[in-house]
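ok so heres the complex, two chains, lmk if somethin looks off
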Amino acid sequence: MHMADALISPAVAGTMYACSGLAAAYSIKKVRLETDPKKVPVMGVMGAFVFAAQMINFTIPGTGSSGHLCGGMLLTALLGPYAAFLTMIGVLLIQCLLFADGGLLALGANIWNMAFYGCFLGYFLIWRPIMSGKTGKSKIICASVLGSMITLQMGAFSVTLQTLASGITELPFSIFAGTMQPIHLVIGFVEGLITAAVLVFVYESRPEILMDVTAKEAEGRFTFKHTLVSLCVVALLIGGGLSLFASSHPDGLEWSIERITGSGELDADASAPYETAGRVQETTSLLPDYAFKESDSLLGTSFSGIIGSLAVLGVCVGACYIFKFFRHPQKKEAK
Amino acid sequence: MSKLDHALYEIHHMDTLADKDQWLNRIHPLVKLIVTVSYIAVTVSFHKYSLAGLLRMGVYPAALFILGDLSFTDTLKRLRIVLPLVCFIGLFNPFFDRQPVTILGMFTVTAGMISMVTLMLKGIFSVLAAYLLIASTSIEKICSALRMIHIPSILVTQILLTYRYISLLLEEAGRITDAYSLRAPKQKGVHFKVWGSLAGQLLLRSMDRAEAVYQSMTLRGYRGEFYHGGNTRISKKDTAYLLVWSCLFAALKLI
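and the predicted structre for the whole thing:
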């Protein structure tokens, strides 16, 4: 998405330099206020990391193509918006000078399109609000994907506006924007996933590095035990509470049968096997039709839901143990 | 050559070119920076149909390539990044702007075709100008020029550190991806299951390196300011260089 010098007029380039310059001046002031002597070396090395990481091809499953991570969003999650913005300026300047990726005159526009949106909007509108409260992997994934997609959309839209304002292309606005936005939506989604994968790894390894994720929160992360207990509680709540609001209307299969035969339940042949099976079911079923025997109380429905959940849990755990018991001996040894 | 190796080669190649002891390299970095930005600004300011005027701007890169003894073929490779985007946008011009301008034999030249060629030329000239700057001036010298125009030290130091550590981290990223590809032959790129751990490991190592860098910088007397050596005075020769090119650009624009 780097703008080339040829795509921008001096007037637009100057305006974008002024806008980016103001944002940079404010960021410098903010970083100086932090009075952290390590900040500048960390910014320098992180800039180099983004540069190197963007050279790694991450395969996109099922497409045969590859993508790279979203530098702005990653840096803002690690360094905060101000330091991340300044770091991105360095990366963009080096990309422009050494690799002709973007132009010297268009540098102000590129800083705005790629660093400003990614670092400031990405942090203040997406990362910080999503990270408020308890932090978790899902929140990091959500913030990274949303952040990358939204900031890339903003950047692509700015490229369209800047090119049209420069009077460079004969392309009508609708066609230009209609081409740029969908492509960058897909790119943003992929970049967001790659960025999320890296940030989740950091969260699991060293959560204190991430912005708005305190070490205390990190200690309280969901372990396997926590997840299992939570799922059990949710299952019991749904089974015991929400089952009371279950629809009394027929389900899809019953509805279809009713449409064909005129009755929701089929009358079985009065042959011996069917009668025997019916009698066995009547005798063994503790809660026929999800209620106590010969009772229509709501307690029966709740009780059925809870018992059902526990029974399913028991069957699943039992099945796992059985599979574990019969597992191939070689695999057991390898473990 | 992999993308990482190519980037490393490009950085080392540029460093070698910038370290040459030639007259173009000895021009003051601030003067070269001003001339380059002025040239690009004048070049892109030409009207979209002003093909003849724009062609005259080719004088600057042509003169510097000859005088600076630089390879033109190396530069062509750099155009591969800029030209596709410029061409993509420029290619639509002949379809939307069909106003005939002149007839060359059986072929009608439209205004859209001229604006397309103009756009491509602007792209090529601006890339060549940036190349001429970086091929004759090291990043350290460009950063010292930025300090001379009062760009805050925090930004300049950060740019220098990023540049310094790019080579190291590219090598490290290269080692990681080589190790990965040796364990996953016939696989193009990095599998999605290891996206996080592969780049994440590099990130955590970089963070540790940043800590070590800070400590070593502190031991060497770093107090938040970057000091650069070399002559910072602008000589008469530098002033003449600036004046000649500025006058020429103005003349080419006004003719």
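quick notes: Chain A has two domains: 5-221, 225-334. thats all i got rn
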